[in-house]
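Need a sequence for this fold. Nothing fancy.
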C-alpha cells in the first residue's frame, strides 16, 4: 500500500514540476521575447528545426502526404515521390 501512495506522490510532484516549467516558459515568451527567440534559435541548433507539424514523428517528415496537402491530380498515394 505504501508503494502505491509513494508512486502517486512522485507522479503528482512530477506533473506539478513540468507544469511549473511550462508556466515559466510561457512567462519568458510573453515578457522577454528576445530571450525566447534566443532559446528557440539555440534549441534548433541542437535539435534541428521544429517539424512543420506535430502529427508525425520527425523521421517521417516529408515521406507522408496528408489528404489536405495533396494536389487535385494526386492519385491518392500516401508516400511522397
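Here you go.
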Amino acid at each position: 500500500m505504501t508503494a502505491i501512495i509513494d508512486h502517486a506522490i512522485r507522479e503528482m510532484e512530477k506533473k506539478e514540476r513540468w507544469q511549473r516549467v511550462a508556466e515559466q516558459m510561457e512567462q519568458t515568451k510573453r515578457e522577454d521575447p528576445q530571450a525566447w527567440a534566443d532559446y528557440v534559435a539555440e534549441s534548433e541548433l541542437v535539435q534541428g528545426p521544429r517539424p512543420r507539424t506535430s502529427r508525425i514523428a520527425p523521421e517521417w517528415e516529408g515521406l507522408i502526404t496528408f489528404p489536405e496537402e495533396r494536389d487535385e491530380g494526386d492519385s491518392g498515394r500516401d508516400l511522397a515521390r
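For context: DSSP finds two helices and no strands in the chain.
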